[in-house]
Design goal:
By secondary structure, this protein is an alpha/beta fold. It is 43% helix and 13% strand. An eight-stranded parallel beta sheet has the order 3-2-1-8-7-6-5-4. Helix 9 links the parallel strand 5 and strand 6. It is globular and about 55 Å long.
Length: 297
């Protein structure tokens, strides 16, 4: 891992152009400079932020922003943007691009041929780029019962798991809520997804435990993490309700949740995936800085 510049020095270099202030842009530079300079992050939690939630920024801007806030990872980035991440020493903490979409996933055998072809190619791309995590999805039920869905998912994923194991890539199936955001999505229950992990029995298949989605579906977040952390390879955040900032405007205690994750000995990433509500660039930067501070336990 590259040694990171102290934030004061990083901001100085951004301001003088040494680290690409022209790319960052004066508005974003001023927004970053307005964030209070706190002590270095504690290092117990590996922080990341989802690309799509800061989609108003160019990927190079986002790389410089996360580095200015003291961490070096961005979630849900595909191969087209990996060269920019590498240029800035930023990790692609959760790779994407192999999936068909969110609805047509591994639980439906009619999609297995396409998915298998795409994932086998993408596993190689991820490994060759030096990354580790690749997202996947259960897809929608379309009337399928849950046991049949499990059997189908096992059958399909076993076609690609040997290559993932050989190349050191971890497939991570994301848990969604089917109540508000993703109607009919199958992997909407931690119990169902954990059973899938047990049947596959591979260290290269884990769950992306999305705290926002699981709070909506079942709650009991901290107990679930403590009892099942061995199946969770990655975490996403967002405030409930609304999927916005993780501050005191919503119902989850993210400081306590982050401590529970830390105490399991987790070494993966906790990625911010809230949709910032601020209308200004400075406000959105502040939202991200605050979220990192809350989860840095």
């Amino acid at each position: 891992m590259k040694q990171q510049l102290p934030r004061r020095e990083l901001l100085k270099q951004l301001a003088t152009g040494a680290l690409g202030a022209s790319v960052l842009g004066s508005g974003l530079l001023l927004a970053v400079q307005a964030v209070p300079v706190n002590s270095a992050l504690k290092g117990n939690i590996r922080h990341s932020v989802s690309r799509w939630t800061y989609g108003d920024l160019a990927i190079e801007e986002l790389c410089l922003l996360v580095k200015s806030l003291g961490f070096t990872a961005i979630d849900l980035v595909g191969p087209q943007d990996w060269p920019v991440l590498k240029k800035h020493g930023v990790d692609s903490s959760m790779c994407n691009g192999a999936e068909l979409n969110l609805e047509d996933g591994w639980c439906a055998p009619q999609f297995h041929p396409q998915l298998t072809e795409r994932y086998l190619k993408h596993i190689d791309l991820v490994a060759e780029a030096g990354y580790k995590n690749l997202i996947c999805f259960s897809g929608n039920a379309r009337g399928m019962d849950r046991e049949t869905a499990l059997q189908n998912a096992v059958q399909g994923l076993k076609q690609i798991l040997p290559q993932a194991e050989e190349r050191g890539v971890v497939l991570q199936m994301e848990l969604f809520n089917s109540k508000v955001d993703h109607p009919d999505y199958l992997a909407d229950s931690s119990a169902w997804a954990i059973e899938l992990c047990k049947r596959l029995n591979s260290d290269n298949f884990k769950l992306l435990y999305d705290i926002y989605h699981m709070q909506i579906m079942e709650g009991d977040i901290i107990r679930t993490i403590k009892n099942n952390h061995q199946y969770f390879g990655h975490y996403h955040t967002a405030g409930v309700p609304g999927r916005h900032e993780i501050d005191d405007t919503q119902e989850l205690n993210y400081g306590a949740i982050a401590k529970a994750i830390r105490d399991t000995g987790f070494t993966g990433y906790l990625a911010q995936e809230f949709i910032p509500t601020a209308k200004t660039k400075a406000g959105r930067v502040q939202s991200l800085a605050q979220a990192i501070s809350i989860c840095d336990v």
